[in-house]
Amino acid sequence: MKKLIACVLTLALALTAVCAMAEGSLTFSWWGGDARHEATQQAVDAFKAATGIDVTCTYSAWSGWEDKMSQYFASDSAFDVNQINWNWLYNYSGNGQTFLDLNSVTDYLDMSQWDDAKLGACNVANAQQCVPISMTGRIFYWNMTTFNKAGITEVPATEDDLFAAGKAFQEKLGDDYYPLHLGAYDRMILMVFYLESKYGKDWADPTTSTLNYTADEIAEGIDFIKSLVDGHVIMPLPTYYGANGDGATHQSNEWITGKIAGIFEWDSAASKYQDALDEENKPGFTVGEEIKFGDYNGGFSKVSMGMAITKTCKNPAEAATLIEYLWNGDGAAIMGSECGVPASKAGLATAQAAGKINELVAEANGKVMSFVSCQLDPLFESSDLKAPGTGTYQEVFDTVDYDNKSGADVVDVLLDGMSAVGYTV
C-alpha cells in the first residue's frame, strides 16, 4: 500500500511539473535566410506539440538585425531565447549582465553534449552564457563552369593559381569576368588569413584583444589585397557597388550568371551560394581548398552562433527545454545543418540519422576545421569595424580601391578604428 501511495505521489508530482511547464510561454528570436526560417519554425512547431509550451517567434534577415537586438538588450526587453553571435557575449554581456548562466538550468539542458573547448569559448564573466550551435570558418567556393570557360580545370590551390586565374579570366572571358569577389569585411578576413599564413600568429590575443601585428606587417597585408584587385583576381569595389549597391553577393546578377566565379565565405553558407546560381552555372559549384599563403596554416574558426537565455526570461526551465529539444533532441532532425554542422554530439547524430546534414556544408566545414590553426578575438567582429557602409574595414578598403591608396596610406585608419573599439595596438 505504501508503495502504491508513493507511486501515486510521484506521478502526481511529475504531472504537476509537466502542467506547470505547459503553462509557461516563451519568446524566441533568430536571424537567417528563408531555409533557416522554415526549418526553425517547423522545429518550434514540433516542440510546441510535444510539450504544450507556447513559443512566439521573431525572425528576419541579418541586415539591421544586430542594431535592433542591441536596443532590446540595452533596455532589458530582449526575447527569452536568442540565437546570438559569439561576440555578443562580450559586446552586450561582458559582465554577465544580459544572459543567464546556463549552469543554472542543467536539469533541463544536457551540457555534456558539447566539448569542453567549445563550451569554454562561450564562458564569459565566469558564466556559461550560451551553448554553441555550430563552429565555422571561411573557405573558398568556386564556380568551375566559368573556370572551365577560362581554360582552368582545377580549383585554385596556391597564391600563384589566383593570379593566373585573374589573367586568364581577363584575357579569355573579358574585363567583366572575375575569379573572385570580396566585400570589405571579406577582404579583412582574407587579409588576416594571409598574414597568419606568413607569420604564424593570431591576429590578436583571443582574450585581451592585444594586436599581434606591427603597422608595417598590416600594411603588407592590405597591399596583398590591393594586388588581387590590380591582378584582376577580385572585382574592384566601385565596380561591384555600381551594379549592386550594398546587395549581397549571392543575390548579384554577376554571381548568379557566373561573371563572379568565386567567393570566400563561411562554411555554413555553401548551399546558399549554390542555390543562387542559374541552371547553367549551378553544376559547377565546388567547395575549394584552403590556400596556404606561407609556411603556416592561416585562418580562424569560431563559434558560428550560440543559443542564449536572457536574464529577464520568466520561464528559464522552459527556455532551456527548448534549446535542449532543438539542438540535442528531436528538433535536431528538423534543423539539420541549417545553422551549420551541429556542435552538439547528440544533435549531430540525430541530424545525420535523419539525413539532414547538407553534404556541401559538411564538406566545407570538414576542410575548414582540419586546416585553420588560429583563434579569433572578441573585438574583430565589432559592428563599428565591420558594419557595411560605415565600418572601419569598409573605409579602409574603399579608400584603397577608390583612391588607389597603398597599405601604408591607410594602415593608421585601421589602427585608429581598432583602438576605438578597445584593441590594444
Task: Describe the fold and architecture.
The protein is an alpha+beta fold and 425 residues long. 47% of the residues lie in helices and 12% in strands. Helix 2 links the parallel strand 1 and strand 2. Helix 9 crosses helix 19. The longest helix has 22 residues. The chain starts with a helix and ends in a 5-residue tail after the last helix. The N terminus is likely disordered.
Question: Can I get a quick summary?
Answer:
With 425 residues, this protein is of the alpha+beta class. The chain contains 19 helices and 9 strands. The strands form 2 sheets. Strands 1, 2, 3, 6, 7, 8 and 9 form a 7-stranded mixed beta sheet that branches. Strands 4-5 form a two-stranded antiparallel sheet.
Structural class designation: alpha+beta
The overall average pLDDT, rounded, is 93
Secondary-structure element sequence?
A: HEHEHEHHEEEHHHHHHEHEEHHHHHHH
State the distance separating the first and last CA atoms: 74 Å
Secondary-structure blueprint:
Elements: H1 2-23, E1 25-31, H2 34-51, E2 54-60, H3 65-74, E3 81-84, H4 88-93, H5 116-120, E4 123-124, E5 127-128, E6 131-143, H6 144-149, H7 159-172, H8 184-199, H9 215-230, H10 237-244, H11 253-256, E7 262-266, H12 270-276, E8 285-287, E9 301-309, H13 316-327, H14 332-335, H15 345-353, H16 359-371, H17 383-386, H18 392-403, H19 407-420
Parallel strand pairs: 1-2, 1-3
Antiparallel strand pairs: 3-9, 4-5, 6-7, 6-8, 6-9
